[in-house]
């Protein structure tokens, strides 16, 4: 479980030009949650990610991972529980063969050889990389490299997998497939996923959406609950997906559309359902 | 257009899956060391011819395309020729009567000077070849594991072997990344009207020199991200690490090492040193 209470962080604390990246964040993430963390540039989401893996330490409030406070000295215990994947795989893949890079984390934990092999096998299978396990990392496509980076994080068998904008360098269909893989992993293995993004249509694929703005939690709820407040989202510099926007306007004109509209497919479904009920009402 | 990637292959790894690639990295490092020593001891053309045959044999067995190696060494060879020209022109050794082909002030071309420069050139080429082939045929993991095990006795003297090896490995890994960065910057400047392939040598050098600051800034930023990435994957120095791949030297590996040693000794012996 991840608990943040009144969590604050400032760069250059105490100086005149201090930057308050987080200002009193309260957040509670249960094990196995599938969460999108969304926010405009400078909303504090990258800072939160760095705090979650103890690269930074809170300057105010408290952050606990499975009850362990994030503070100097506890880095290793925190990082055993939370693995992070950064935006650019080229900056985080260390070894030059796929399987060797996935093994890098478990090797650092000082595990037995058999255990490392088992974890590497598991992570490669989960990301669909068995076929290319002996390939060279340089020869892979950006999407494949990102999968290798995620496999490397997963091989640590963390409670939570944190992905810091892993899809921003990928084409949309590849990004979508990657998120579906994460969903599958989350269902089967119960690994919690925190996906940082600024794409609203990606956020719609998650169970829970946390919106950060100016270092504070602006909204926290299901995608439907969050998308309903499109005016506030726009103020925070975030765009609501077109289908959701359209559904909102139709609702304002009096069409009885439900809350379930998150993308084009569900809008089509809702409209089709509407036509069906109207046909019944008119009768032959 | 500035094209470096094709002209610099130092630090790259070309996987052809050959016998040379599959050899135990410790054996390969040992063989490379033997050849490096040999290149210093041998000082006749015949000796280098014998070592050259061995290099050709390694090249054939490794299945690394010779064209790739040559194209990738063009920049290095050009630089070497430039240095060797000075070696010839300023030759300071004894020159026998009638040995001068051309003379002007302190500058001269003599048969003795040409010979000494040629031997030096062959020596440097062999050194370059041995280290390049070692890296072209050995993956980073194998190279790290091999280096760590060979130098592990030094750990008792409190030498941080694991850390030093990792620093070396990351340095090697960064060579192609740096080269890519230089090319990218050069392309960006070319697009803004800075021609890198026009003007005299000095003008060109000055234009490339101006890329240095942004390259270093970019390099530091990348190193910073890489450090963070390693830390969050629980890297705490090499002492706590275990390994997925176990090294095992097959009898054929030892036989290959023995063959290289025998060959190097033969080259030395032909050179008249024994």
List the helices and strands and how they pair.
The complex is a heterodimer of chains A (284) and B (274).
Chain A: E1 2-11, E2 19-29, E3 34-39, H1 45-52, E4 60-65, E5 68-69, H2 75-81, E6 82-85, H3 98-108, H4 113-126, H5 142-154, E7 160-164, H6 172-189, E8 192-197, H7 200-203, E9 208-213, E10 216-221, H8 223-227, H9 230-235, H10 242-252, H11 264-282
Parallel strand pairs in A: 3-8, 3-9, 6-7, 7-8
Antiparallel strand pairs in A: 1-2, 1-4, 4-5, 9-10
Chain B: H1 19-22, H2 25-41, H3 45-62, H4 66-89, E1 100-104, E2 107-110, H5 111-137, H6 140-151, H7 161-191, H8 201-209, H9 212-232, H10 251-270
Antiparallel strand pairs in B: 1-2
Helix pairs in contact in B: 2-5, 2-6, 2-10, 3-5, 3-10, 4-5, 6-7, 7-9
- The helix-strand sequence of chain B is HHHHEEHHHHHH
Indicate the proportion of strand residues of chain A: 15-25%
CATH H-tier superfamily of the largest domain in chain A: P-loop containing nucleotide triphosphate hydrolases
The largest β sheet of chain A comes out as: 6 strands, mixed
Helical content of chain A, roughly? 40-55%
The two chains with the largest interface, and their residue counts, are: A-B, 38 and 28 residues
What is the H-and-E element order of chain A? EEEHEEHEHHHEHEHEEHHHH
**Count of discrete domains of chain B:** 1
The strands making up the biggest β-sheet of chain B line up spatially as: 1-2
Overall structural class of chain A, as computed from helix and strand content, comes to: alpha/beta
Low-confidence stretches of chain B: none
Radius of gyration of chain B over all CA atoms, rounded? 22 Å
For the terminal residues of chain A, how far apart are their CA atoms?
57 Å
Shape of chain B: globular
**Oligomeric nature of the chains:** heterodimer
**Shape annotation of chain A:** globular
What distance lies between the first and last C-alpha atoms of chain B, to the nearest angstrom?
51 Å
């Amino acid at each position: 479980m991840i608990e943040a209470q009144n969590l604050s962080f400032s760069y250059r604390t105490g100086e005149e030009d201090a930057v308050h990246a987080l200002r009193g964040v309260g957040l509670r993430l249960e094990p196995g949650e599938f969460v999108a963390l969304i926010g405009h540039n400078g909303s504090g989401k990258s800072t939160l990610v760095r705090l979650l893996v103890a690269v930074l330490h809170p300057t105010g409030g408290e952050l606990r991972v499975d009850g362990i406070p994030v503070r100097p000295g506890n880095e290793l215990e925190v990082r055993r529980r939370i693995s992070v994947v950064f935006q650019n795989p080229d900056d985080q893949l260390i070894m030059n063969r796929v399987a060797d890079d996935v093994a890098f984390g478990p090797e650092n934990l000082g595990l037995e050889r058999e255990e490392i092999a088992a974890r590497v096998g598991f992570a490669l299978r989960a990301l669909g990389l068995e076929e290319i396990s002996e390939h060279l990392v340089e020869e892979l496509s950006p999407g494949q490299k990102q999968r290798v980076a995620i496999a490397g994080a997963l091989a640590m068998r963390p409670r939570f997998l944190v992905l810091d904008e892993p899809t921003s360098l990928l084409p949309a269909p590849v990004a979508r497939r990657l998120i579906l893989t994460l969903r599958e992993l989350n269902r089967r293995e119960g690994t919690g996923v925190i996906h940082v993004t600024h794409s609203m249509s990606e956020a719609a694929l998650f169970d829970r959406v946390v919106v950060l703005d100016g270092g504070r939690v602006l909204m926290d709820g299901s995608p439907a609950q969050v998308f309903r407040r499109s005016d506030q989202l726009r103020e925070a510099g975030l765009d609501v997906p077109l289908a959701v926007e359209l559904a909102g306007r139709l609702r304002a004109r009096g069409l009885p559309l439900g809350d379930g509209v998150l993308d084009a497919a569900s809008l089509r479904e809702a409209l089709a359902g509407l036509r069906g009920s109207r046909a019944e009402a008119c009768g032959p | 257009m500035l094209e470096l990637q094709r002209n610099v292959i130092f630090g790259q790894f070309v996987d052809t899956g050959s016998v040379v690639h599959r050899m135990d990295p410790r054996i390969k490092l040992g063989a490379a060391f033997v050849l490096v020593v040999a290149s210093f001891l041998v000082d006749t053309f015949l000796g280098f011819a014998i070592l050259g045959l061995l290099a050709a044999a390694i090249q054939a067995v490794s299945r690394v395309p010779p064209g790739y190696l040559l194209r990738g060494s063009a920049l290095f060879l050009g630089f070497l020729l430039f240095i060797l020209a000075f070696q010839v022109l300023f030759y300071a050794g004894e020159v026998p009567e009638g040995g001068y082909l051309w003379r002007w002030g302190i500058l001269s071309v003599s048969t003795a000077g040409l010979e000494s420069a040629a031997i030096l050139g062959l020596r440097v080429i062999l050194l370059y070849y041995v280290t390049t082939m070692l890296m072209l045929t050995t993956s980073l993991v194998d190279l790290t594991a091999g280096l760590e095990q060979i130098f592990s006795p030094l750990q008792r003297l409190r030498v941080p072997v694991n850390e030093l090896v990792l620093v070396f490995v990351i340095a090697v890994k960064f060579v192609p990344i740096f080269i890519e960065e230089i090319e990218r910057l050069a392309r960006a400047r070319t697009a803004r009207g800075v021609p890198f392939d026009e003007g005299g040598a000095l003008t060109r050098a000055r234009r490339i020199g101006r890329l240095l600051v942004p390259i270093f800034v970019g390099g530091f930023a990348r190193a910073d991200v890489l450090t963070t990435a390693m830390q969050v994957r629980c890297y705490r120095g090499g002492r706590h690490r275990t390994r997925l791949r176990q090294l095992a030297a097959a009898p054929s590996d030892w036989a290959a090492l023995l063959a290289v040693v025998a060959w190097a000794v033969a080259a030395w012996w032909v050179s008249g040193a024994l």
